[in-house]
Amino acid sequence: xxxxxxxxxxxxxxxxxxxxxxxxxxxxxxxxxxxxxxxxxxxxxxxxxxxxxxxxxxxxxxxxxxxxxxxxxxxxxxxxxxxxxxxxxxxxxxxxxxxxxxxxxxxxxxxxxxxxxxxxxxxxxxxxxxxxxxxxxxxxxxxxxxxxxxxxxxxxxxxxxxxxxxxxxxxx
Length: 172
Known about the structure:
Blueprint: H1 10-15, E1 28-32, H2 38-51, E2 54-57, H3 63-70, E3 79-81, H4 85-94, E4 98-102, E5 109-110, E6 121-125, H5 134-137, E7 142-145, H6 157-168
Parallel strand pairs: 1-2, 1-6, 2-3, 4-6, 4-7, 5-7
Helix pairs in contact: 2-3, 2-6
EC number: 2.1.1.34
Organism: Actinoplanes campanulatus
Keywords: Methyltransferase, Transferase
């Protein structure tokens, strides 16, 4: 007979996590610089909290409402506002940050082969319909691809970003 499975209580789960309130860790940043759907932002923000990452988003008028609606934790989250995505990515790269895009490309690393981030890493997610703009592709250090078997050509931005964040955080 196998031993009984015991689930942890919410108190046990909380005590095993970070001891202080969230502040910008600065190690992982999910950059949704060209979002199309507001629902994706809230979902990705929840994943950012789960893996200890920050979210970079444009200062569009609808972003605050989308983040508030999607942040089911109801606690402050680390969100960086990015007004000029190309200048921000160039600055991050110049500062030594690894900049990875999630995109379909010939030279892409498969998600299963992606190592955990060992230094500050920005994960760039493109527009849901058009992907990462060509002018931003030149600012990437590498590209990650999520293999698919089905008929679709890509996953929802929040789902794709969540998978890559977990892998970069070393949690998968």
